[in-house]
Amino acid sequence: MNDQDNNSKSRAVDSLLNFETVKYYCAEDYEIRCFEEAILKYQHCEWKSSASLALLNQTQNVIIGSGLLVGSLLCAYLVSKGQFQIGDYVLFGTYIIQLYTPLNWFGTYYRLIQSSFVDMENMLALLTEHVEIQDAEDAEDLQLTAGQVEFDRVCFSYVPGTEILRDVSFTVEAGQTVALVGPSGSGKSSILRLLFRFYDLQSGSIRIDGQDISKLSKDNIN
């Protein structure tokens, strides 16, 4: 149930964050169907989880009630025979109730533990994700003096064989304002992503105050 809950939430968040892409490809109906399918799977798993928890609790109540009834009858019989005192009967009931009460929470504890394990697995899987953009071994901190930005014959592509930028060169002087103008898909956003080093270049270089950002620490650039 927890896996399906994460899946449905991921589907909803992806669709909302990428609403422009969904709109471009007229995929609203497709995304709705996928989200509906994820919700139905979650509801099915939730029903199974709730039914099994209810069955467990009812079974426990039957066992506890039967055991308490049989034990009480036995104690009452022994009291009538003089083998037990009245205090022994009360002691039996008190101990049994104190013993059985925590058992009612076993199903809930099991569910919480399983849910926590699933979340922990997702967290550990996220920590083992490979980082594509790595700092050089001798990476240095950015020494910002003026703020000049220079693109020198920059070539970049998200998919091999499909270049987004080809031999792009320009210089933005300190204090200068430059506008990037062009149609959608011309690489305006890619230039900003490369400046923050979200991706590495195929060729060329980007320099800030004469310092190649590929040789600088990513944290310091951002």
Automatic annotation (TrEMBL):
Keywords: Membrane, Transmembrane, Transmembrane helix. The chain crosses the membrane at residues 62-79. InterPro entries: ABC1_TM_dom, ABC1_TM_sf, ABC_transporter-like_ATP-bd, P-loop_NTPase, Type_1_exporter. It is a multi-pass membrane protein. Its main location: membrane. It is found in: Membrane. GO terms for cellular component: vacuolar membrane. GO terms for molecular function: ABC-type heme transporter activity; ATP binding; ATP hydrolysis activity; heme binding. Residues 1-115 form the ABC transmembrane type-1 domain. PANTHER family: ATP-BINDING CASSETTE SUB-FAMILY B, ATP-BINDING CASSETTE SUB-FAMILY B MEMBER 6. This is ATP-binding cassette sub-family B member 6, mitochondrial-like. It comes from Notothenia coriiceps. The lineage of its organism: Eukaryota, Metazoa, Chordata, Craniata, Vertebrata. The gene is LOC104947454.
